[in-house]
Amino acid sequence: MTAPEFEDVISRRLAEARENLPRYSPEEAGEEIRRGALLVDLRPLEYRLRFGDIPGAVPVSRHVLEWRLDVHSRWRLKELGFGDTGRRIILLCNEGYTSSLAAHQVSALIGLADVGDVRGGFAAWQAAGMPVVPRSPEVHA
Fold first, then answer.
1. What are the pLDDT digits (tens) for 66-114?
2. In whole angstroms, how far apart are CA 129 and each of 26, 89, 113?
């Protein structure tokens, strides 16, 4: 008997989610943002305070992501047009796991046509020398 490819269910689900998910290197994501893609930063406030923000990224807490990305919702992000299901949206978390699962889930649940994530998340973004703006100690939001 051979060992299973994955030891746990979530690793298998993550691999399945990534099969049809657009995934971008930090450099590719930067280029897509220049072309008009929306970068959504899922990292908790504590991480953004400690490690900085990505210029132009919109911070959204994971627990309200579906409401903020639903282009038919009154709670949608102001950066999203009403009914614009085709807008390219790139999610970013700290290391690229939460963002993959979230991208898969929001695509399936609310019908967005072009949601992907950054491979390696913020850690890869920073390691690639992509722009990061440090947070001022006085800024708490």
1. 999 999 999 999 999 999 999 999 999 999 999 999 999 999 999 999 9
2. 9, 22, 29
Strands 23-24 and 38-41: unpaired
The mean pLDDT value of the chain amounts to 92
Single-letter amino acid code for the residue at 88: R
Q: How far apart are CA 30 and CA 32, in angstroms?
A: 5
Residues 6+ apart with CB under 8 A from 55: 131, 133
Residue 57: alpha-carbon gap to chain centroid:
10
What is the arithmetic mean of pLDDT over 14-26?
A: 95
Res 115 pLDDT > 90: yes
Cβ atoms 65, 102 nearer than 8 A: yes
Interior/surface letters 24-40, b for 16+ CB within 10 angstroms, e for the rest: bebeebbebbeeebbbb
Q: Which residues contact 7 (CB under 8 A, 6 or more apart)?
A: none
Helix (H, G, I), strand (E, B) or coil at 34: helix
Question: What type of residue is 42?
Answer: L
